[in-house]
Amino acid sequence: MFENLKKILNEDQDPKSIEKITSKLENLLMSNEVVGYIAVQKKPAVTLFPDSIVVTNKRIILCKPKNLGFSMEFVDYDWDDIAGSFVKEGILGSEFTFSTKTDLTLTVDYLPKTQARKLYTYAKEQLDLLKNPAQTVPLVDVVSPLDVTSEAEEVEEILAEEITNFAEIVPSTQSYEKFEESRENIVSDEKSLVDLSQEVLFEKLQNYKRLLDNGLIMQAEYDALKKEVLSKM
Predict the structure, then answer these.
(1) Distance in angstroms (rounded) separating the CA atoms of residues 107 and 55
(2) More confident residue, 166 or 92
(3) Which distant-in-sequence residues (6+ apart) come within 8 Å of 225 by Cβ?
(4) Do 167 and 200 share a domain, yes or no?
(5) Which of 134, 159, 189 is the last residue of a domain?
(6) Which residue range forms the structural domain that includes residue 170?
(7) Are 200 and 100 found together in one domain?
(8) Residue 47: CATH number of its domain
(9) Which residues of 17-55 are buried (b: 16+ CB within 10 A; e: fewer)?
(10) What is the pLDDT of residues 3-53, one digit of tens each?
């Protein structure tokens, strides 16, 4: 693990702090798990026991010192459970925020800007790998065009079947006019997603969830909207 520190360290980081965190993580890492980056809080005043966030190829780990720094609390979230992430930069540092698929939002503040940006970049790469796993698998066999067409048709059929199975019926208590109005607003919003900031996209994702909870859109529509928003984050 310590050999990997050379790739992690930069001018904003304290080598002793990073070494302390990695030494505590050494017995927590799973097989084939590699630390990709570590970011440490740096508040305007002296930070004796800063929080830190560790990203690996398998999960995000929040590290919080306890008992005057003699112990450490670890809370982790697998990449499969992460819905999205974004960075907000300020005068006194940056905030790295990520959300889970259970609508849980977590933020680590007072991160140096360089660390926050590298953290976000690594998180974005991991989330992209989950969306496009085929990119990480080397192509060995030669595939004919007919095979590709057949596989694509099978994927489309499976997706159509899943949408049919999981689609929810709008409750009868909702008026048809109100339902159509909500759908039109969503379609209008969807066209302008590319021009929105990370924060606004995150708010839209929460609004779509409220529409789903209130029965104004179906589960399949929410999943499609959610996928569209996350692709722009």
Answers:
(1) 14
(2) 92
(3) 186, 190, 208, 217
(4) yes
(5) 134
(6) 144-232
(7) no
(8) 2.30.29.30
(9) bbebbbeebeeebeeeeebbbbbbbbeeeeeeebbbbbb
(10) 555 556 655 677 777 888 888 888 888 888 988 889 898 888 777 788 899
